[in-house]
Structure formats: C-alpha cells, structure tokens
Specification:
Number of domains: 1
Order of helices and strands: HEHEHHEHEEHEEHEHEHEHH
Strand order of the largest sheet: 2-1-10-9-8-5-4-3
Largest sheet: 8 strands, parallel
Structural class: alpha/beta
CATH class: Alpha Beta
C-alpha cells in the first residue's frame, strides 16, 4: 500500500486539472473487444490500458469493476491496470467497484484486498448491514467509500424507497416521511463519515431522488451511474446533484467503436461527455431568469 493524498484531495485536483466530472468505468468484456483481441481474456489489461491512455486528460476518476477481472481469473491484470493508471494518469484516483457488504473479519479482508492488494483510492460498499459493514474500511482514513444509496437499476426501489417507521409518543410506530435511501444518505454523510471521505452512489435514472439525497446530504460527493447506456437524463441529473459529483460512463465510452480505432473513439466520446456535463453544470449554476 502506497502513501498518497486522500481520495477527496486527489479527486478535487483531477477534476480541476482536467476540467472534468467524468468518471470512466472499466468493465472489459472480451466478446466486445476489437479484432484480433475479440474473446481473448488475456487482453483485459491491453484493452483497458489503451482506454486509459486515450482519456487520461479528460477524467476525474477511473472505476474498474472487479467482477469483470475476477470472473476470468484475471486479478493480476487488474493489479497491472491500476499500476498503469498511476503512471499514465498520475493523481487521477481509482475507485474499485466491488460493492462489498460484509462485516467483521471478512470485511477486514475485503478492505485489505481493496486498499492493500489493489491499492485503490476508493471502494464501493453496500451499507445494508449497518455501520458494521462500514467500520472496517474506516481503518484506512485516506481512502474513499461510496455507499450504495439510490441505485440506477429498475429493482432499486424494491427496498431503497421504503418509508421508515418512526416512533410515536407512547411507543407505537407509524410510517414517517423518511425513506430508506435518505436514512443511508444521512448516516453516510454525518454519523459514519469519520474521516470526511464518504460519498454516495445515486443513479441518474432517478433525478428526483438525487434531489432528496441532496436535501439530507448537501455536500458529500455523489458517484452517479446511469448516463449513457442506461439512458439517464444528463441535464436533470446535473440540476439535481448541483455540485460535488462524478458522472460515470462505462459502455458508451469503452465500446464507442468495435474497430481498431476503439481508443480514438473512446477519447471522442469521453470528450463529448465531459463537455456536455460542463455545459449542463454551467447552465444549472447560471439559470436564465424567468421572463
């Protein structure tokens, strides 16, 4: 494990230097690689490294998804990729997308995996076993934690939007106004945010819920998937998030072309997305007055 500035500091510096709120997700699928790499699991590193080289000055973070490497027994290529990011995009933080959610000694091992083996700057977590599922990661005070809050998948509302019961005087309970994802946001932003490195995952497919998150967690960074292949509304998302956000794009950048020009195409799409985010952020910060 190397010593670097905190995740938040690295992210702020990369965002300012590259004028970017774009996070590129690295989810390599060999079946979608260009020839002659198609269906070759030994080319995960080569493919992702080419994407990094092409986009290093356009992003504020990279987010490799561990399952795409582990499923193919390619954890060594993931280690190699993170080391490459350190060289090709120095000071651009790496968010390991693993969505860990265990407790105790097992969570301690997951923390070691993320922050010592892979040397990631931040990690995605599932907080639904409570603080016990977060505490082991806080032993790495400079590393960031993005807690799943209001996710972009269609089934996210099955649990995340449930109204919580609050106690009445006399001990009975009733359904209050607070939703489960709002409680997660509040805890992550305050009670659990011991080192000021916590963030939340909030999907672009639910901009109204991002507004609710901002009402209870006004300042924590939001990692926002769902733009691009999932069809989230960029303008509505930026208006709802307001500031301190990373908008993730994976497939729309990685597979902008399936030809030999895939890296150049990825750069063009990353630049387009970065600039589009900036346009919407400027419009949200400087709305036209109502006639």
């Amino acid at each position: 494990m190397t010593s670097r500035p905190s995740f938040i500091q690295q992210w702020h510096e990369a965002a300012e230097r590259n004028n970017s709120a774009l996070c590129v997700g690295l989810d390599p699928e060999p079946s979608r690689f260009p020839a002659p790499w198609t269906n070759d699991p030994l080319r995960l590193f080569d493919f992702c490294a080419a994407i990094v080289d092409a986009t290093a000055d356009l992003v504020c973070a990279y987010k490799p998804q561990i399952a795409y490497f582990a499923a193919l027994g390619a954890e060594g290529q993931l280690e190699q990729l993170i080391a490459h990011i350190r060289k090709a995009a120095p000071s651009v933080p790496v968010i390991l997308d693993a969505k860990r959610g265990d407790i105790g000694a097992t969570a301690q091992q997951y923390a070691r995996e993320a922050f010592e083996r892979y040397d990631a700057d931040a990690l995605t977590l599932s907080p639904y076993m409570g603080f016990d599922s977060v505490e082991p990661y806080l032993h790495y005070p400079e590393r960031g934690l993005f807690l799943l809050c209001r996710t972009s998948n269609p089934g996210g509302g099955d649990l995340q939007t449930l109204a919580l019961a609050s106690a009445r005087a006399g001990g009975s309970a009733h359904l209050g106004d607070e939703l489960l994802f709002e409680r997660v946001a509040r805890l992550a932003a305050f009670d659990w945010n011991r080192h000021g490195q916590n963030g939340l995952v909030a999907g672009a497919t639910n901009p109204a819920d991002i507004e609710r998150i901002r009402a209870v967690a006004p300042d924590v960074p939001l990692l926002i998937p769902g733009i691009g292949a999932q069809g989230g509304d960029l303008a509505a998302t930026v208006r709802a998030a307001r500031h301190s956000f990373l908008i993730n794009a994976s497939r729309s950048v990685l597979y902008a072309s399936n030809g030999r020009d895939f890296a150049d195409a990825a750069r063009r799409e990353a630049r387009r997305l970065r600039d589009a985010i900036n346009v919407e952020a400027h419009a949200a910060a400087h709305p036209h007055p109502t006639p």
